Amino acid sequence: MQAYVLINCNTGSETTLISELKELPEIIEINGVWGKYDIFIKISTADPNGVEQIVKRLRNHPDIVDTYTMHVLYGQGGTIDNE
């Protein structure tokens, strides 16, 4: 299972939060971003409930204010290298 998650966090906590989230093995990409959201992550897990478990963990973090999760639809796209 793969998903992208956009995160809003408390102002000033971005750098610390990114460092913490880098330690989670299910997070395979993480970037600070400008705009409506503060952090962009990509989750990949073999567990069918893995995305839900990670998102619940994110939502319980004291510095995370809001999340927006987008589950990947398999068979529609992929990386440029795969096409």
Short structural summary:
This protein is an alpha+beta fold and 83 residues long.
Layout of strands and helices, then pairs:
Elements: E1 2-9, H1 14-21, E2 27-32, E3 39-44, H2 50-59, E4 64-71
Antiparallel strand pairs: 1-3, 1-4, 2-3
Q: What tags apply to this protein structure?
A:
four-stranded antiparallel beta sheet, alpha+beta, globular, 83 residues, 4 strands, Alpha-Beta Plaits
Description:
This protein has 83 residues and is α+β, with helices and mostly antiparallel strands. It has a single domain (2-74), classed as Alpha-Beta Plaits (2-Layer Sandwich). The protein is 22% helix and 34% strand. It is built from two helices and four strands. It has helices spanning 14-21, 50-59; strands at residues 2-9, 27-32, 39-44, 64-71. It has a four-stranded antiparallel sheet with strand order 2-3-1-4, with helices on one face. A hairpin with a 6-residue loop joins strand 2 and strand 3. The model has no long low-confidence stretch (mean pLDDT 92).
Mean pLDDT: 92
CATH fold-level assignment: Alpha-Beta Plaits
**Order of helical and strand elements:** EHEEHE
The H-level CATH homologous superfamily, spelled out, is Lrp/AsnC effector binding domain/regulation of amino acid metabolism (RAM) domain
Percent of residues in β-strands: 25-35%
Q: Count every beta strand, where a strand is a DSSP E run of 2 or more residues.
A: 4
Kindly provide the name of the CATH class. Alpha Beta
Distance between the termini: 20 Å
- Number of helices, counting only DSSP H or I runs of 4 residues or more: 2
Domains (count): 1
Which residues sit in consecutive blocks of at least 5 with pLDDT less than 50? none
What Rg, in angstroms, do the CA atoms define? Answer: 13 Å
Helix content range: 10-25%
Widest beta sheet: strand line-up: 2-3-1-4
Structural class: alpha+beta
Biggest sheet descriptor: 4 strands, antiparallel
Overall morphology: globular
CATH architecture: 2-Layer Sandwich
Protein name: Transcription regulator AsnC/Lrp ligand binding domain-containing protein
InterPro entries: Dimeric_a/b-barrel, Tscrpt_reg_AsnC/Lrp_C
Organism: Nitrosopumilus zosterae
Domain Transcription regulator AsnC/Lrp ligand binding: 5-73
